[in-house]
Amino acid sequence: MALAPGTKLGPYEVVALLGSGGMGEVYRARDTRLGRDVAVKVLPDAFAKDADRLRRFEQEARTIAALNHPNILGIHDIGTHDCRPYLVSELLVGETLREKIDQGPIAVKRAIEYAKGIALGLAAAHNKGIVHRDLKPENVFVTRDGHVKVLDFGLAKLILPEESVENAQTMTSPATVPGMVMGTMGYMSPEQVKGEPTDARSDIFSFGAVLYEMLTGQRAFKRGTGAETMTAILREEPAELTSIGWQGPPTLEKILNRCLEKSPERRFQSASDLGFAIESLSGTSIGSGSQVHPVVEVKRNWWPWVAGAAALVVVGVAAWFAAKATETKEEPIFTQLTYDKGYLSNARFAKDGGTILYSARWNDDPDLHVFSVRADFPQSSRVDLPAANLLALSASGEAAVGLSTVNHANFMSGTLSLAPMMGGTPRVVLNDVISADFAPDGKSLAVTRLVSRRAQLEFPIGKALFSTSGYIDYVKVSPDGKSVACIEHPVFDDDRGWVVVVDEKGKRTQLTPEYASIQGLVWSKTGKQILYTAADQATARSLRSVTLLGEVRTISRSPLRMRIQDVAADGRLLIASEEIRSDIGAIDPVTKKEKKGLEWFDGTGLSDVRPDGTAFVGFEWGGPSGPLYMTFYRKLNESGPTQLGEGAGAKLSPDGTMVASEVFARPPYIALYPLGTGESRKVSLQGLSGVSSPAWYPDGKRLLIVAAKDGEGLRSYAIDLDGGKPQPVGPPGFLGFAVAGDGKRIAGIDGSGEAVIFNVDTQDVRKVRGLDPEEQPKLGPDLNREAWSSDGKALILTKATLFGAEIFRVDVETGKKTALKKMELSEKAGALMKPQILYAEKSDTYVYRVSRVLTKLYVVEGLR
Fold this sequence. Notes:
By secondary structure, the protein is mainly β. It has 10 helices and 54 strands.
């Protein structure tokens, strides 16, 4: 029943009903506190019956309200009235895009303006991890002054619970649950129609359907029945614009066609890139599309027309020459600098622009060394420095290097030291440094480093600007020395992340969306933009740029993994190309012979192995895995793996029937995948972040995870798979990795990184004796599985070097160690991470993974 005028909803007094629909009623109301008119949307009665949905509604509404973007409807407040939640937003005056389209096709120039506003609104939301899922003309509003607002962001996701399909309606179900459909018929993406998981690229398809309708006045996929419409979305293409008499710029039609690609991988990969493509049309001469204007005869002075015609001729000639110049523009020139086989970490131009310094681990050398090379004759020479990772070069010729480097999952840390760039004795400055850069004065340094299990940005050294439970790398000081750019990674053992800029006062601004893989960053010489290399799908990184206003542009795409290193004063770039190789092998539990070639695509990792050694769980971050990776299960005696779903770092349940996998979504969650019959489901982490290393309790009803909460440091939590609030386990800083069979002892590491046992009954923490520093366990989805022995008396741990690994057993009471298995790399060149080796105790066999990164360094001219 509609609310009567005068009804009070907190401080808001209903004035009149503006409209109603499946998502509730919208009222014009008066904010009695601030004396302004607002819009109040009262959501459906179904919300009043589910306390968990009310909680999620508030959480999502706050996230949407925080967007604060001019092209997204602003949310002022939330509340409940008679147990029904409501949203308070700005009151818009104008009409919906649906009402405008109903009047006929929209002029091309105006359609481009509207499309640009929609794309900017989508980009702002996608950057915060919010996907619309129901973009259509009804959800786009055009104000009287022509400004575009996207409405109902996130509400499609809120309408139904994500964990249940029992009360799913025809077209409003969460896309996060496989097999369910969410969206509006005719505007859904193919993946929505099929009930598959969706991401921001689904909104880009819907955007294409809306743009098509703006330009033609016709729906792109509307057919006689719903089933026929869904079939058209999956299998058919809309009529070409030119075939129905449309007369607009061909570039706009290309943009439209790319948005409507059936495969998400072929669409624009971000709304930011889409917005940039549309914005590039703003200055283009465009026709009026389908609209025809009558000719009006008016008397005019001839001279202005002649002058105008002459000006047009000049402009036309200039445009022709510009076009010819573009046609004959030379391709970028790549000059290869390195020819050895191995991994290169960092490279920098010296002040003269002709000398390049880099650090690499060539051939069978286990250590990083610094080398110099010149582009005019690429013969590398080793610099007279100890084993070191090059971090930065100053204009005065001083090198910042990292000594005693430690390999983490996706970055290195070491002791920051300074030395003459062509050799000498380094001077120690600071420990646990990830990256460093000199300020333009060549004296002060910006660094990112590890401090108490958190990564911290400092500029200058000692002045902390911000920290994270993930990690921060590729720090670079701006040319004016007033701000610092870096890459922030929200998960400690994963290279997904985004570009941020931090000013002298510590104000942090995120400039880009989150990428599945992002490594490499430099300032342009003008300081107006930042160049970086990132991948949407965790495979090939592209070269991109972003302005300080967050305008993203793709400069160059490549089938290879690029990593930008530096930029010279004349605009030349240093770019490393990387070839990834992952080899998976196992000892067959029956024949005891080695089986090779068990990897899947080009980025396979190991997660767990069955106790009898007959099968293992892994994850793929290369090939077609997507930004959230892909968990799989593989039996040694079968020809190929079984795809389970998104995620990494998976663990088998105690009874071997299910896999728990961590999914680095926003927010993160644990996915449970059955190995036989049954449905997959999600386990909410309720605000926890930085999640890694799930482990099962022996009852199979709970998981032990390592995570951070509300900006705090990492610690252990127990997650009940049937719901409930995550419960802290052990003291702060205790990171658990395995629960003993009795359920009362938990193995983990303490604040100093040493192995300990936490006793649930006594709450005591006791160190595991007898372990050397290199034998201490490590956490992460891409590292070795540390576990309890089946008899509960010992831990099964791994001691790994860059070129080999061995498994051993350590008695938790006596510290006695027993060697179990050992392996060595037959090919050492390019080894970047220590090999993984997972022990199958019941069959006394193991599965292993060897990962290599082979790098070539290039000087590149002509990329802009």
